[in-house]
Amino acid sequence: MSNIWRRFAVLACMAIAVVSCHPDSATDPAEVSVAVNEGNDIEVIAYFHGDTSDIRKYELGDLTQIIYSFLHLDGNRLSIGTARQRTDIRNLVSLKEEYPALKVLVALGGWGGCETCSDVFSTDEGRAAFANSTLELLTEYELDGLDLDWEYPAIEGYPGHAFTAEDKQNLTALIRLLREVLGDGYELSFAAGASGRFMQNSVEWLAVMPLVDRVNLMTYDYVSGDSEVTGHHTPLFPTRMQSASADSTVDFLLDIGIEPEKIVIGAAFYARVWEAVEAVDGNPLNRPGSFKEFVAYRDQSEYFADQCAIQWDAGAQAPYCYGPSSGIFGTFDDKRSVAAKTQYVLDKKLGGIMFWELTQDTYQDGLLSAIAAARTGAEIEL
C-alpha cells in the first residue's frame, strides 16, 4: 500500500468513534519541559467570534491575522447581517492603525452558518454573484480577504443542511472564480475539517491549493460532543490507538504534494468535558461517558480546580484532566500543547497556527502568549 493510501486509511478512522489505549506516556505536567526554537516568520491567526468591546485588552501584537466570524449568505450574496456586525468589523479594521502588519479577514459560514451554500455555489450565476459581492464588501470595509468556512462540501455537516457529491467540484469552481475576481491583492483561505471524510471527499486539493494563500486545518474536535467515549479532541500526534491527530492530517496533505507553507494547523482555546467516566487501570481515555459541556480556556482553571487533576500524554503531546471521584474528564489545549504545536509548525516549516477563538483566551498570559513565546524562542510560563 502506498504512503498516500496508508494516509487515506488512517484518516478514514477519524470519522469513526475514536479509540485510545492507555496514554503512551502520562506524566505530571510539572515534569514536562517545552523546547522552543528561535523565532520564524509564521502566521498566527485568531478567529474572532463576539463583540469588540474588549478587543484591545488582548495581546494583538502577537497576531498576524484576525478572522471575523461569521458572515452569511443573503440570497447569493455575502452579507453583513446586523448593525452590530458592521460596527465590530469596522472596529477590527481600525486596529490596523495601531498594528499595521495585522490583516483583518471575514469568514463565511461556520457550523450551522452555510445552510444554502451547496445550492448557491452549484451554479455559475450563484458563484459569480457571491464573488462580486465579496469584492464589494472587502473594498467597502477595507478588509484584507476572505476565509471560506463551508461545513461541509460533499459530506454531511450541520444536520439538515443540503450537500451533494458535486459540491467538491463546485468548491473548486468557486475558489477559482474568487481568485480571478479578487486578484492577488486579497487573502483567500479556507477552513478545512480534519476528519478523514472531509480530507478525502470534500476538496480537490491539487486543484484548489495553488489558488489559495493557505488552508486553516481545524485540527480539533477529533472527539466531539456526540461521542459516547472519551479521547483527545485536539492532539498533536497519534497514539497507538487514536489515529486522529494534527500530524496525521498534515502528513496526508504533504504526501499528496501540498506545499507545507500553505498549511496552517489549529489549536482549541476551549475544553470538551465528559461526566460519569470510569477509568480502567488509571486510564480515562476511550472510556464511556456522557458529554457534559464546553469550557473556554479563560474559565478552565476555576472549572477544573476541584474536579480533576491535569495530566500530560507525552505521546499525543496533549493534556487531559480526570477526577476519579468526580468522574469528570476534560480534553483541551494548554500552554504546553500550543507551544508544542507551534514548535511543530516551525520544525515542519508549515505556514502557521490558528485557533478558535480569541475571546476564549485570557487577556494576558494565556494561550496566545504561549504561542508567541514558542514562536520567538522566549521563555514560556507554564
Architecture overview:
The protein has a single domain, classed as TIM Barrel (Alpha-Beta Barrel), CATH 3.20.20.80. The protein is 29% helix and 22% strand. The chain contains eleven helices and 15 strands. The strands form two sheets. Strands 2-3-5-6-7-8-9-15 form an eight-stranded parallel β-barrel, surrounded by five helices. α1 runs antiparallel to α8 and α4 packs across α5.
Lay out the secondary structure.
Elements: H1 3-12, E1 26-27, E2 43-48, E3 65-74, E4 77-79, H2 83-94, E5 103-109, H3 117-120, H4 124-141, E6 145-149, H5 167-182, E7 187-193, H6 196-201, H7 205-208, E8 214-218, H8 246-255, E9 263-268, E10 270-275, E11 290-296, H9 297-304, E12 309-313, E13 318-323, E14 328-331, H10 335-348, E15 352-356, H11 367-376
Parallel strand pairs: 2-3, 2-15, 3-5, 5-6, 6-7, 7-8, 8-9, 9-15
Antiparallel strand pairs: 1-12, 3-4, 10-11, 10-14, 12-13, 13-14
